[in-house]
């Protein structure tokens, strides 16, 4: 029986973008990445040709937020600040100290006088 030989991976060239013709990258025995292109050149290519998923999601979220703000737009008018007199009018006449005092039960004689 004849065995099918697999092609040697080292001889096979990968398909690459036309802007990256001749680009080679390897990892040496120490785990260092060795390339014949500078990092700046690679980043420039990636910025032009690849969409960043995180940025796309962020842009979509910002767009949705802007649309929501436009949909529920609230007119910003001049806000009138409450004066001390307005504040006092809105409160009860009982002071904080009087609020804290226990209510005294009425005596029978006082109840008779009120009737």
List the helices and strands and how they pair.
Blueprint: E1 25-27, E2 33-35, H1 39-49, H2 53-71, H3 84-89, H4 96-100, H5 108-114
Antiparallel strand pairs: 1-2
In short:
This protein has helices spanning 39-49, 53-71, 84-89, 96-100, 108-114; strands at residues 25-27, 33-35. By secondary structure, it is mostly helical. The N and C termini lie far apart (122 Å).
Task: Give the termini distance in whole angstroms.
Answer: 122 Å
Can you tell me the overall shape? elongated
Number of strands: 2
Structural class: mainly alpha
The helicity comes to: 40-55%
Would you identify the regions where 5 or more consecutive residues have pLDDT less than 50? none
Order of helices and strands: EEHHHHH
Give the strand order of the largest sheet, numbering strands 1, 2, ... along the chain: 1-2
| Count of DSSP H/I helices | 5
Q: Mean pLDDT across all residues, rounded?
A: 76
What about the largest sheet?
2 strands, antiparallel
Approximately how much beta-strand content do the residues carry?
5-15%
Radius of gyration: 40 Å
